[in-house]
Amino acid sequence: MPTKWKRLTALATMVLTTALLSGCSNMMVLDPKGPIGAQQRDLILISSILCAVILVPVLIMTFVIAWRYRDKPGNKSKYTPKWEHSTKLETIWWGIPIVIIGILAVITVRYTYATEPSKPLESANETMVIQVTSLDWKWLFQYPEQDIATVNYLQFPANVPIRFELTSDAPMNSFWIPQLGGQMYTMSGMAMKLHLQADEPGSFFGSGANFTGREFGKMNFEAKATTQEEFDAWVKQIKSESPALTLEGYSKLAEQGVTHEQSFSSFPEGLFNKIVNKYASSHQHGAKTEASTDKQEKSEKDAEAADSTADGQEGHDANHAGH
C-alpha cells in the first residue's frame, strides 16, 4: 500500500475513534449532585491528570522514536550499537513515576477516608434512614421512620443525609446512584451502610451494577430528590392511597421476575431484620442492623435496671425480716 494511503487510513481511524468516544462525554460520575459524588469526581480527575503526566510523554516519545529511527533509504541518524546506559535518562524515567505514585498514594488515602461509606455525613439536618433490599430483579425500599415502602422508585428530601441500610434476598447485587456516590454491594445475611446526600432537587439514575441473572439489566430505578414539603406530601399520598405490604405479599414480590413501580402504605414490623437474619447462620457478623443494635442495647440497659431494682428489693426484705 502506498505511503499516502497508509497515512490517510491512519488519519481516518483516528477521526472515527474520536467520533465514537465523543458519545462518552455525558458521564454521570463526572456530573455529581452530592458531596460524596463530588469528592469521588475530584479523585478521578486528579488521578487521571497525574497518570497523564506519565502516559502522554511516553506515547509521544514512542511515536517520535519510531518515526526518527525508522529504516529508510539514506538514513543519517547516529548509529550507536554499543550504547547501553544513561544515568540521566534512568533518573528521569524512574524518578518521575515514583514521585507521582507517592503523591497519588497520599491523595487516594485521604479521599478514601473522607468518602468511607459507613461514615455519617456532617449536616445540620437529621439523617434519614432508608432500608434497601435487592431482589430478583427489582429493588425494595423501606422507610422505617415513615412506615412506607416502594419498589423500583426512591424519593427523599434534598440536602438531607440519607443512611442506606443494604441487604439482599437474592444473589449479591450492587446498589448505585452514580451522581450521588459510588456503589455498595448488597449481600444476603449482611446489613451494609452507605451514607449519601443530594445537594439539590432532581431526578437521578439508579441501578444494580452487578450481574445477577437473566433480567439484571432491568434493575434500574429512579432516585428523586425533592423539597421537604414535596417529600412529606408524597408520603401522605402513599399512606392514603396505597395498599399495605404483607408478609404474603413480600414473599410473592421476592419471586424472580420484573415488576413496575409500586408503593405500600405500610410493611410488616421488622421486615428488614427478618430478611437479614434469614441468612444469619452463614453470615453472623452482618446479621444486625444499626437500628436493631440500638434496640438490643436499650433492652440490655432495661434488664440491668430491673436486676438492680430486684437486688435492692431483696436487701430491703432481708433487713425487714431481721428487725
UniProtKB/TrEMBL annotation:
<feature type="transmembrane region" description="Helical">
    <location>
        <begin position="91"/>
        <end position="113"/>
    </location>
</feature>
<comment type="function">
    <text>Catalyzes quinol oxidation with the concomitant reduction of oxygen to water. Subunit II transfers the electrons from a quinol to the binuclear center of the catalytic subunit I.</text>
</comment>
<dbReference type="InterPro" id="IPR010514">
    <property type="entry name" value="COX_ARM"/>
</dbReference>
<dbReference type="InterPro" id="IPR002429">
    <property type="entry name" value="CcO_II-like_C"/>
</dbReference>
<dbReference type="InterPro" id="IPR036257">
    <property type="entry name" value="Cyt_c_oxidase_su2_TM_sf"/>
</dbReference>
<dbReference type="InterPro" id="IPR045187">
    <property type="entry name" value="CcO_II"/>
</dbReference>
<dbReference type="InterPro" id="IPR011759">
    <property type="entry name" value="Cyt_c_oxidase_su2_TM_dom"/>
</dbReference>
<comment type="similarity">
    <text>Belongs to the cytochrome c oxidase subunit 2 family.</text>
</comment>
<dbReference type="InterPro" id="IPR006333">
    <property type="entry name" value="Cyt_o_ubiquinol_oxidase_su2"/>
</dbReference>
<keyword id="KW-0449">Lipoprotein</keyword>
<keyword id="KW-0813">Transport</keyword>
<keyword id="KW-0249">Electron transport</keyword>
<protein>
    <recommendedName>
        <fullName>Quinol oxidase subunit 2</fullName>
        <ecNumber>1.10.3.-</ecNumber>
    </recommendedName>
</protein>
<feature type="compositionally biased region" description="Basic and acidic residues">
    <location>
        <begin position="287"/>
        <end position="304"/>
    </location>
</feature>
<dbReference type="Pfam" id="PF06481">
    <property type="entry name" value="COX_ARM"/>
</dbReference>
<keyword id="KW-0564">Palmitate</keyword>
<keyword id="KW-1133">Transmembrane helix</keyword>
<feature type="transmembrane region" description="Helical">
    <location>
        <begin position="45"/>
        <end position="70"/>
    </location>
</feature>
<feature type="domain" description="Cytochrome oxidase subunit II copper A binding">
    <location>
        <begin position="125"/>
        <end position="237"/>
    </location>
</feature>
<feature type="region of interest" description="Disordered">
    <location>
        <begin position="282"/>
        <end position="323"/>
    </location>
</feature>
<keyword id="KW-0732">Signal</keyword>
<dbReference type="InterPro" id="IPR008972">
    <property type="entry name" value="Cupredoxin"/>
</dbReference>
<dbReference type="InterPro" id="IPR034227">
    <property type="entry name" value="CuRO_UO_II"/>
</dbReference>
<dbReference type="InterPro" id="IPR006332">
    <property type="entry name" value="QoxA"/>
</dbReference>
<keyword id="KW-1003">Cell membrane</keyword>
<keyword id="KW-0812">Transmembrane</keyword>
<keyword id="KW-0472">Membrane</keyword>
<keyword id="KW-0679">Respiratory chain</keyword>
<feature type="compositionally biased region" description="Basic and acidic residues">
    <location>
        <begin position="313"/>
        <end position="323"/>
    </location>
</feature>
<keyword id="KW-0560">Oxidoreductase</keyword>
<feature type="domain" description="Cytochrome oxidase subunit II transmembrane region profile">
    <location>
        <begin position="21"/>
        <end position="119"/>
    </location>
</feature>
